[in-house]
Each structure stands twice: as structure tokens, then as C-alpha cells.
Amino acid sequence: MASSPQSSAAGPRVPAPIVTAFRWLASLRLAVGLIVVLAAVLAVTTFVEAAKGREYVRWYVYGSQWFVWLLGLLAANILACTLSRYPWKKRLAFLTTHAGLLLLLGGAIQTFWGGIEGQLVLPQGEALDRMVLTDRCQVVAHWIDMSGRPDRLPVGFVFRPGPVDWPEGETLDLGDQSGVRLKVTRLICHAVVDETWVADESGGGQPALRFALAGPNGTPGEGQWLVASPMGGGAAMGPIELEFQRVPAASMLEDFLQPPKEMDSRGVLSIHYQGRMQRIPVGANLGKKTLLNDGKVSVELAEYLPNAQPGDNFRFVSKDDEPKNPLLELRVYLPGQKEPLRQVAFATRPMQSFEGIHGWNCPVKFWYHHPAVAAGPGAQFLQTPDGKLYCRVGLGGKYQMRGAVRAGDEIELPGKFRVLLLEHLPSARREVRYQPAELAGEEGGLPDAALCLEVTVGGQTQEVWLRRDDPEHGVQRLVTPEGPLAITCTYEYRPLGFSLELLKFQRGLNPGGMGEASFTSIVRLIDKNQGLDQERQIAMNQPLAHGKLSFYQSSFDESPGSTTTSTLTVAYDPGRFLKYLGCLMVCGGTVVLFWRKMRLFAGER
Questions:
Q1: % of the chain beyond a pLDDT of 90
Q2: I need a labelling partner for 232 at 20 to 30 A (CA). Which of 341, 425, 456, 497 fits?
Q3: C-alpha to C-alpha distance for 557 and 569, rounded to whole angstroms
Q4: Architecture, CATH, for domain 116-129+494-572
């Protein structure tokens, strides 16, 4: 039984409650009880981790306040037991061992509270200077138009969502920054997207077409949506391709149902203006101006590019002379304007233009026909400004016209395929819902988190769903009383303070070529603050340590046809020194204790 400190005759007497509490804190019973409880918690946590995953036990056990309090109580017990042995004459080994235990526990608590673990996904040949914290969400709100308002800077909100879905009613107020207030009202850790389209009564939506495709076996598949866009909404099933477009002018229906039958090697351009169509051969009019029907507007065929690809400053260049992607550079001269409007006409994407990028609305529309662009096997649908739907089928490089179609029609396609038109919405808006995913399969294959946000700006509150780190569903644009606002949800990114570039990735195989034996990343470390530019190696059992961070080889991706990537785990452990020092002190003190016991045993014999 540990003895309690006694007050000297000259000194003040210690109150009895404090002496009782100290004796209880320094008792051997408490020490044994705490060790048993800690061992039981760790044993149960091992089974929970196997069932629920590492993130679950990190959140509910190792990173929880009750576990830190348990370690703190154990540390207080060890400290009280050590103080009860004062004075420590000839007890250096005892003091060293207990001091090492205190350092070890202090380092563990410091790691739980201040440690960071993230990821760095390095594509070969690229350098990155920030890591991803995969256990955190970052919501960024930025004004789309910040002109004249230097105070409208992007604002970020960071939080840890946890490893399980939030129950109904649980919310997290992220606070108010620069007039933007965010509140998380629901979170699904692994969410699948349930997307549908509904009628938009305002008339400002996009045309949408729901269809089912039946193969040669005659069984139709599940209903899918085609949405008209300037790029052309598309879907494919084996060799069959479906495409949906919307034309801005009624006269363009003739281009769809009656394309030109004869054209030169550079094609024919259809010009649509004031409800009338005018077709001109490209080869004979290249570099010339064509006067339109009112005598006030003219169009110049400035340049022909047989195989266009993007260049600098929204310019196009031709990769070669083979007509794989024919394009026309056009100049539209309008009355009252000094400079012509620049337009482009793609033969492969007739509805694509620069109007959405530059924000203008050119009154002249174009449809570019080229002999090298043949009809592929499948069906093309087109919606006219009056909301009617038309169809043509590609067969043998030619189009067969089906004319006007409607929901309920069945259209025969090449190869004994059929398409069933289930629903047509001339103006539709997308509705996206999220459902919890089935937690089956590997953890790495599960979908990412989705969260519901309440966004309050200028006294107006709106609700939006965002999916973390999703290029399509991870950003929402809102119209607020203060102006248009974009909300983005990603992982939290934290700067490294330096950069790593993957120079080469190597992997070794076991004898016989069965199974991976080793992974090695050859990286270039660039730290301008320290003047470093060195080549380093990161292997499975050989981490890279630089500054406060350590990099461990985690996984890799060498998919055919894609760039090789190496995934590194990035860790910052603020309690590492205390834990290492504590372990050395415990080991040293234990060895000295055993050595003294052995000497005493030998002396007695």
C-alpha cells in the first residue's frame, strides 16, 4: 500500500480530504483497475475496427474525449504513485520507469489531439505542394462576380463529419463569414446519386428525354435520361449511340431532316437568319463575305480547319489535314457594330458555339455539314423551339428520317436494337437526391459523402445538397440578394510548405512473378525556403521525413492508358518525440530494476 505524504511539525497540516484523495489516486487498486479497463477497451476496439473500419474507432475511441480522460487518469495515478515514494533515494530506476510512462502517455494524448494524417496522390511527372485531409470537409463560398467589391473574397468552412451518417435533427452551425452563413443539416457518409428530371414550369430549363434501349434479345433496359446541351446529350449501348439536341431556330429543322445531298470536300454551311436558311459551299466561298437576306448582315468564312484542336486564347489550330474534326472560323458583321462577332461552326457538334462563353447572343445561327462526318449507327433526336420532337436513324453512314415522334413511340435501330421513348419534357430541371450506399465490398470502392446545407445570405435561406469532391455534384450556384454565389464542397487541402514531384514509380514482384513484393516512389523534393532540390526515395518500409511531416508509401495506380499515380500517406505526429523518449526511459528503467533484482538474488544465495 502506498504511503501518504505527511506534513512536518513546522509546516501546515494537509487537509484530510486531500490526503484521502491522494491515497486513492496513488493506490495499487486504481492502477490495476485502470490497466484492466484499458486492456479491455483495446481488445474490444480491435474487433470493432475489423467490423466498422479504422475511421470508426479513430473517431469513437482513440480520438474521443473519454479515451483521453482515461489515459489522463492513468497518468495521474502513475504521478501520484511516484510522488508517494518521495524521497527517491536509491530509486532512480523506479523514477525513470514511471517518468517514462508519463512521457509515453503525454505523447499519446498530444498525438490524439494535434496529430494530422492525410494523403498525397502524385501523378507521374507532376509536382504537388498540398495534401488532402480525407477525414475533413471543406465548404467554400465565393462570389461569381467580384468586380468592384474587393471585400467579396472566397470564404471557407472546415469541419470533421465523422464516420457515420448523421441522425435526423443533428445539425452543425458553421458560422457566418463575410455575410455568408452556413449550417449543415444532414450528412450521408457514403451516398449514391438518385438523379431525375422534372418539368420546369418556368420554361427556362433544358429539354430532357427518358428512354429505354432494347437489345437483340428483345428485353428493354432501365429507363435513362438524355438531356439536350450545346455539346449534345448522348448515351451508348454497345455499337448504338443516341444523341439529343435542341435548335434555337425553327428553320434549322430542315438541316436535320433534309441535309444537303451534294457538297464539295470542305462541306456546306447553312446560315439561318430571320427565319430563313441560306446554304453556301465552303470551298468556293472561303475568305469571302456572304450578304444575308436583309442586305444589312454579312457572314465571312474566315478559315477552314480540317482537324481542329484547342490552341491558345480560345483559338483553334489544325492538327493535320485529315478531316477528323472539321471547323469553320466565322465573322458576323452586324449593323451598328465596329467589330465583327467571332463564331465557330463544328461539323461534329452543330449546336456548339462561343455564345455561352462570351455571353452574347448572335442573331445568325449556323449548321455545318461535312462529307467526312458520316451517320453513326443509332438515333439522333432534335427539339425545335415550339417543343416538338423529331428523330432520324443512322444506318450504313446515311440518315433515315423518322420525322416527328412522341412519348410512347418505338423506333427500330440497326442491329435489331430498339429504343422506346418513355417521356419527353420540353423544359426540365434536374432533381438530385442522395441515398446511403450499401456498405459492401472494399472500403476504397465506396462513394463519397454528401451533405445538405442551409445557406443564408441577405436574409434569404436556401437549401442545397453537395457531394464531396465531385466535379458535377460538388458545386452549386445560387442566386442571392447579394448576387450569384457558388458553393463548393471538397476535402480540406493543407499546404506542405514544399513540393514533391513523382519522377518514377517502381514495383517489385515476388519470385515467380506472383504478388507485389515492394513499391518504391522516386520523388523530387523541392523546398525553396531551405534551398533544397533533391531526389529522394520512398519505399514500403522506408518513409521520407522532411520538416514535421513523414511520407509513407500507401498504394499506386497503373491502369492501362492512364498516367501512373503513387498514393502517399502524410502524417504529422507532434507526440512522437515524447513517445520515443518515454519508451527508452521505460525500457532503461526496467532493465536496471531487473539487474538490481538479479544482483540481490545472487547475493542472497
A1: 40
A2: 341
A3: 15
A4: Sandwich (2.60)
